[in-house]
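Quick one, tokens below:
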């Protein structure tokens, strides 16, 4: 009497396609990760040892020494940045904003942006600084 197995195929699994996919993903992430660090070149003010460094997941808004506003690296008027931040908040209600002001930036320009953001309902707005190593 012979037993016949039906539906049993080759039980060996080839790992080569999975390794190829993982290697490709690793290469993509290694190339794109340095590009994710964006922003303009500004000199941040120094603060105490508990300075906000902006390493958390937040919208990066910057004010340069001339009082120009930037959303990441794109220079925009203040009101346009606020509109875009509101649109981004629609996708993430707990969105935080990190405001980076140059040491030589006009205090009024930085506070004007912060005030506008607070006026439209952003509760998590922080000022980015450097840690004072003195």
């Amino acid at each position: 009497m012979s037993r016949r197995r039906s539906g049993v195929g080759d039980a060996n699994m080839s790992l080569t396609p999975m390794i190829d996919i993982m290697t490709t993903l690793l290469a993509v992430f290694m190339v794109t990760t340095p590009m994710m660090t964006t922003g303009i070149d500004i000199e941040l003010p120094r603060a105490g040892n508990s300075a906000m460094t902006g390493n958390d997941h937040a919208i990066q808004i910057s004010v340069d020494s001339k009082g120009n506003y930037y959303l990441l690296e794109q220079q925009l008027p203040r009101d346009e940045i606020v509109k875009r931040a509101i649109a981004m908040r629609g996708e993430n209600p707990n969105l935080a904003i990190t405001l980076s002001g140059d040491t030589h930036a006009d205090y009024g320009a930085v506070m004007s942006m912060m005030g506008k953001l607070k006026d439209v309902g952003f509760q998590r707005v922080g000022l980015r600084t450097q840690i004072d190593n003195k």
